[in-house]
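Need tokens for this chain, all 219 residues.
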Amino acid sequence: MSLTVKICGLSTPETLDAALQAGADMAGFVFFPPSPRHIGLETARELGRRAKGRATKVALTVDADDATLADIVEALQPDILQLHGKENAARLRDIKRAFGLPVMKAIAVEIAADLAALSGYAAVADRILFDARAPKDATRPGGLGTTFDWHVLENLDLALPFMVSGGLTADNVAEAVRVTRAGGLDVSSGVERAPGIKDPEMIRAFIRAARAIEEMTVR
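Here are the structure tokens for all 219 residues:
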């Protein structure tokens, strides 16, 4: 079993290098001002150049308009756009057409009923990310360090590649994969020593744990 590992919310050359050197498949960059992981366009330009050819560059946005997306695409030159807001399937289709990039749609999960919109998104998106639903008073939709009931995805029949996120750490990631059979893992707060402050050793530990899962499934 080959797992796609994404380290999200990277914001400094040092932590980006730690993720790349440890073997992250995807490097995620957040463009959402309420988030402690938000980066500006000049930082994105620098980090984008640093990650080019070393990992898939992911631009995370939340209900961004086309002008904002255009600025992000120009600066980061991402390989895929992660849409983490309330974008509907038609909006996904419009973004793909406008920017010529694949899209990953995040779906907030708490109970099985939250999967009702999945088929519509799956018809348009290139990848799905299942994340824990944020509390109603939260200022952002993800990166809050909370898990969801992975058993909601236990019998999921989805041909599209999908990832899980929400409260993942080196300690619980094996159980998350065992229950969900996800092909990808997305971590942010689980590799931080404080909100928005990535820890290189925690990044390395998470990726080691993910690769250990691969080795176990090969045996």
